[in-house]
Design goal:
45% of the residues lie in helices and 10% in strands. It is mainly alpha-helical. It has one domain.
Length: 104
């Protein structure tokens, strides 16, 4: 649920508190954020290791897949991997739409 606030005839959208509530249960909570945005192999491996057994890994991944501007490691995936997921989902949706249209 989004909370909307009006300020001088403009609507400002504030991120819902509930939308990121899963982050409190993340394995990376309190971890070094540099591990998730580093170009050093050793540091990114630490981030991937934390994500491996994270109880909210898939919620984190879905959050990052929704926004293509999010960089770094989220849900155990890199920015490139999330772009692949977005492309595959788009292809799947395009195919499903085409199939439904041809059916009629």
């Amino acid at each position: 649920m989004l909370r909307l606030r009006r300020r001088k005839n403009r609507i400002l959208v504030a991120m819902a508190v509930d939308e990121l509530r899963w982050a409190d249960k993340a394995a990376c909570k309190g971890a070094n954020p540099d591990w998730f945005f580093s170009t050093e192999y050793e540091e990114t491996e630490k981030a991937y290791a934390l994500c491996t057994n994270c109880p909210v890994k898939f919620l984190c991944l879905e959050y990052a897949v929704k926004d293509p501007c999010i960089t770094g490691i989220w849900g155990g995936t890199s920015w490139r991997k999330r772009n692949q997921i977005r492309r595959l989902r788009k292809l799947r949706n395009d195919y499903a739409t085409t199939y439904r249209q041809e059916e009629w």
